[in-house]
Amino acid sequence: xxxxxxxxxxxxxxSIKYLLSGKAHFxxxxxxxxxxxxxxLPISLTIAFVAxxxxxxxxxxxxxxxxxxxxxxxxLTIVMIREIAPGFVALAIGARAGTAIxxxxxxxxxxxxxxxxxxxxxxxxxxxxxxxxxxxxITVPMVVIIAxxxxxxGGMIISMMTINLHPARYINSAWLWLATKDVYIxxxxxxxxxxxxxxxCATQGYETKGGAKEVGISTTKAAIxxxxxxxxxxxxxxxxxxx
Length: 243
Description:
Blueprint: H1 2-20, H2 26-38, H3 41-65, H4 72-110, H5 113-119, H6 124-163, H7 167-177, H8 180-206, H9 212-242
Helix pairs in contact: 1-6, 1-8, 2-6, 3-4, 3-6, 4-6, 4-7, 4-8, 4-9, 6-8, 8-9
């Protein structure tokens, strides 16, 4: 794990230098943005809505029994923005797009396409990594913002259907509890998660050696490692800003 982390840092530094040199193509970034975030948007929003609905169903009855139903909106909003939306969206994108990144680069590695790029005097790390890193860093926060909105609205709809909570009370509670700091931290999480997912999965794919069997193994490892690194980063961010 230490060696792999070192490889990730090394490739990140190479990608930053490649980006600052102006060699990254805008079209490649757009294509990767579509593959990473746009194609993952339906599953991400579905997960956000279902998670909000489940949480609302779980807490609404207890809040109603204690006379605290007016706090449902605020509670759900804080949970969605601080943790559920950035975490679940990152997991969905990692499972869908991250594994695809690893499999694609691993296949290029085992079929000698990476060596072919080197013969053209093109840095394969910068060429393959940079567009994916930029796309992940920019578009994952966008998906998280949309998922937060969908989750909050979904909670309002479910609370209205289950305990007949008026939308005005829900929105008022959400507005009072929500802090600008929470939104900023949520976007910071999404930004870091976007970089981690693309960096870890691309590194795992790039380090693949062998044949088709190793491509499958590498894809599985990419999914596991990206999830572990993301959870560690999530814990550290919460420790820094909320302790």
